[in-house]
Design a protein that fits this description.
By secondary structure, the protein is α/β, with parallel strands linked by helices. The chain contains eleven helices and eight strands. The N and C termini lie far apart (36 Å). It is a single-pass membrane protein.
Length: 284
C-alpha cells in the first residue's frame, strides 16, 4: 500500500514502549486458545465474554514488564497505523457529512502484552478489538504474525489495514446506533438466534472495511485486496473451527464464514455505498 509521506492521525496512543503490570494471561492452554478465537477480529460482544474466560483460565499472574525502547521497525509500523487511521478519519468524515451526520474520530491504542480498557483488562491473546465504552480500538501488532503463521493468511501491510478498517467499522456501528439495537434484539433470543445477530454485526463491519477500501483505491497496490481477502478467509468461523476442532458447528458461528466475510468486504469495496450493507436483512 502507498502510505509513506501521507497524513498521519493524531489519534493514536502508542503504549508499546510503556511498562505494563497487573494481571495478564500466561501459559495459554485451551481457554487461552478460546479467548483468541472469541476475540479474533474484535467485535463488541467479545469484550463481555473474554473476562469470564480469563477468570475460568485460572492461570493469571501478576507481573510487570519493563519499558523497552521501540525498534526502527516498531516505529515504522506505528507510522503506518497512523496513516491508515487518518485515511479512515477522512473517508468516514466525508461519508457522514454527505449523509447529514457528524463523524466522531475514535482513538487507536497500540500496546504490547496487556492493556486496561473501559471494557476491562485484555491481553495480546484478545486480538484487535473495539471497545464501545471508551470508543477506542486496541491492537497488539504481534497478532498479525499469528494470523499468518497459525491461520494461514498471506500477511502484508494491507491485512493490517483491513483489520483496522474492520474495527473502525464497529465504531461506525456505535455512532449509528446499530450496535445498541443489535444487543437489544439479542435479548430473549436463543443462543443460535443471538449468534446470527452477532454474525450480521461482524459482516457489516467487513462491509464497512470494504467501503473504506473503495474510497482509498488510489493508494492500493495490486496485491492489497488479495491480502485482505486472505485475512478474511483465514478468520472465518468455519475455517477456524475446522482447523481447531476438525468440524464446524454453524449455530455457534459469531463472525461469519470465510465466504461471507469475503463477500461482504468485496460488496463494500465494489459499491462504496453504505446503504447496501444491511447484513441483518440477508442472514435471516
Amino acid at each position: 500500500m502507498k502510505w509513506q509521506g501521507r497524513r498521519q492521525s493524531d489519534n493514536v496512543e502508542d503504549r508499546r514502549g510503556m511498562s505494563s503490570g497487573g494481571k495478564t494471561i500466561v501459559g495459554g492452554g485451551i481457554i487461552g486458545i478460546i479467548i483468541l478465537l472469541v476475540n479474533i477480529f474484535g467485535g463488541e460482544n467479545a469484550q463481555f465474554i473474554t473476562p469470564v474466560l480469563e477468570q475460568m483460565q485460572g492461570s493469571q499472574s501478576s507481573q510487570t514488564e519493563a519499558a523497552a525502547p521501540l525498534s526502527k521497525e516498531d516505529e515504522e509500523m506505528g507510522s503506518f497505523v497512523k496513516v491508515i487511521l487518518a485515511d479512515n478519519e477522512d473517508i468516514w468524515g466525508n461519508i457522514f457529512t454527505e449523509n447529514g451526520m457528524t463523524y466522531k474520530n475514535p482513538k487507536l491504542v497500540l500496546f504490547k502484552g496487556a492493556v486496561q480498557t473501559a471494557c476491562g483488562g485484555a491481553s495480546s491473546a484478545s486480538g484487535p478489538f473495539y471497545c464501545p465504552g471508551d470508543q477506542k480500538v486496541y491492537m497488539d501488532l504481534g497478532f498479525f504474525e499469528e494470523l499468518k503463521t497459525k491461520f494461514g493468511a498471506k500477511g502484508g501491510d494491507f491485512a493490517i489495514a483491513y483489520v483496522i478498517a474492520h474495527e473502525i467499522g464497529h465504531h461506525v456501528q456505535t455512532l449509528l446506533g446499530t450496535s445498541a439495537k443489535m444487543r437489544q434484539a439479542q435479548e430473549g433470543k436463543s443462543e443460535a438466534q443471538a449468534n446470527k445477530l452477532s454474525v450480521a454485526l461482524e459482516l457489516q463491519a467487513d462491509f464497512y472495511a470494504g467501503v473504506w477500501a473503495h474510497y482509498n483505491e488510489k493508494n492500493l497496490d495490486p496485491d492489497d485486496i488479495d491480502e485482505a481477502l486472505s485475512a478474511a478467509n483465514a478468520v472465518g468461523d468455519d475455517a477456524i473451527q475446522s482447523k481447531m476442532q476438525g468440524h464446524v458447528v454453524p449455530d455457534s458461528f459469531t463472525h461469519g464464514t470465510s465466504e461471507q466475510r469475503k463477500y461482504w468486504f468485496m460488496k463494500g469495496f465494489k459499491t462504496g455505498d453504505i446503504k447496501q450493507g444491511d447484513t441483518f436483512a440477508e442472514i435471516r
